[in-house]
Amino acid sequence: VVFGSDVFIAVPDGARRAALLEMAAQGPVHRVTLPNGHPGWLVTGPAEARIALTEPRLARGTTGMAFVDELPEAAASLQNHMLNMNPPDHTRLRKLITAAFTRRRVESLAPRIEGVAAELLDAMSPALDRGDAVDLFPSFAYPFPFRVICILLGVPEQDEKELGPPFAALAGGTVSGLQAYGQAANTLLGFLRDLVAAKRRDPGDDLTSALVQVRDGEDRLTEDELTAMLYLLFIAGHETTASLLANAVLALLRNPDQLALVRAQPDLVDATIEETLRYDGVVQGTLTAAATEPFDLGGHTINAGDRVTVSLMAVGLDPALNDDPDRFVITRAADHLAFGHGVHHCVGAPLARLEARIALRALLDRFPVLEIAGESLERVPSLLFNRLAALPVRVPAR
Ligand code: HEM
Description:
Elements: H1 15-26, E1 29-33, E2 39-43, H2 46-52, E3 58-60, H3 73-79, H4 89-100, H5 103-108, H6 110-129, E4 134-135, H7 136-141, H8 143-153, H9 157-171, H10 178-201, H11 207-213, H12 223-254, H13 256-264, H14 269-279, E5 289-291, E6 295-297, E7 300-302, E8 307-310, H15 312-316, H16 349-366, E9 371-372, E10 392-394
Parallel strand pairs: 2-8
Antiparallel strand pairs: 1-2, 3-5, 4-10, 5-8, 6-7, 9-10
Helix pairs in contact: 3-10, 6-8, 6-16, 8-12, 9-10, 10-11, 10-12, 12-14, 12-16
The structure holds protoporphyrin IX containing FE.
């Protein structure tokens, strides 16, 4: 398998899940070739995934995305964040972010998150009420978490627009070209440095100000650590939640019995979110780690230098973890690793779940009937995200 050609950047909707189901049926650990030619391993089995994600002989680094061996300078600086680090450096940063990104901070955002959802639905309603098809991705699923992360980090509203294009270029990784990637990284690095300087001068009730001020004894974040942390929060905080929303809506519209169930019992919205994370997860796999020494995993010898990535999507589709895994059933107790596992387990999971609950409820309340407008859907070619290219919907004609 060439990691990057067949499974991971397959674009027709459903192709990725079908390929992963097939791979998972063949065994828990698979030999692959990474796009840069490195030998690698793809872990699809739930038990082996947990082992790999707590294995100290697997080390991450800034080229963890496995596209290339060397990143442009600004990109390397932004990529020097905790998701690419190992203990004890990772432990230090994780302590500082945990102290600043508290549950209280997340919960206090709820009214503003509700406001963002209502505003975007208001803007979409006239077209849908006229019977037009609307692409839910750019009109709702994407701008919703983007605005929320801007509110969380205290980005002034007038600056939000400026951030859209560089993030779009970066999210594609080097798929959109190394030069575009480097330029976008430069723009963002400048923006984030200015944001930090502004919050130092004039702190507010936002996470950036809290990160500027947070202390662990004598320890605090340096300037470069701050910008890399903010970059990670931005990327991790909007691409993912956007796809979670779109994938949830798609699964519900394709499974009318499940849609009827969650409409009748709105409390099932949380279970719908968990089932979406299992059935059509949004982060395809963890960032790649390299073996520092040989070790055995799932009956294979992983040699020093081999790269290992865990297919989080495949784990949720393994029949050992969930019966009848290719069916979307919101009432099952979905078991998944969609938020990762081990020391890098997602810091933003409580926020992502809160956002998804608010947005999905608001959308279902606003539009009592919706259907997919179009025959075939595609996924964006990406090694990292399982993102729809578009999700056209409309209110069906009576
Ligand atoms: C549906 C939404 C989300 C999903 C599925 C998701 C998934 C993940 C996964 C799988 C990881 C670990 C990746 C790996 O091990 O390579 C991770 C880490 C992380 N996530 Fe999320 N995430 C989501 C939303 C968010 C949000 C909203 C934020 C913040 C605002 C966030 C911040 C982070 C951070 C900072 C890390 C790095 C943790 C560390 O290295 O210790 N995520 N996320």
